[in-house]
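re: the backbone from monday

yeah here it is again, tokenized this time
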């Protein structure tokens, strides 16, 4: 629920005030990770099937890469 709220707030910020390029990329990656999580929950968990390891790994990798992009977008740049 917390991740869904965070993605919702990022999408809201993108539409209302705009986001830097890296933050928009992070938002897209978070939406993709969310879609993967929904697939894992609705298709595998509810049907009591084992989660495929590649799908879990890709889901986590996309989410972590999105987080790194978001942190990079918010890091102050001094030049």
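seq for it, each position gets an aa:
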């Amino acid at each position: 629920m917390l991740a869904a709220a965070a993605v919702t707030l990022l999408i809201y910020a993108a539409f209302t005030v705009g986001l830097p390029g890296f933050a928009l990329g992070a938002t897209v990656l978070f939406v993709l990770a969310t879609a993967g999580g929904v697939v894992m929950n609705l298709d595998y968990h509810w049907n009591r099937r084992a989660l495929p390891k590649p799908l879990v790994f890709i889901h986590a990798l996309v989410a972590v890469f999105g987080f790194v992009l978001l942190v990079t977008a918010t890091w102050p740049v001094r030049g």
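The CA atoms of residues 10 and 27 lie 6 Å apart. The chain has a mean pLDDT of 92.
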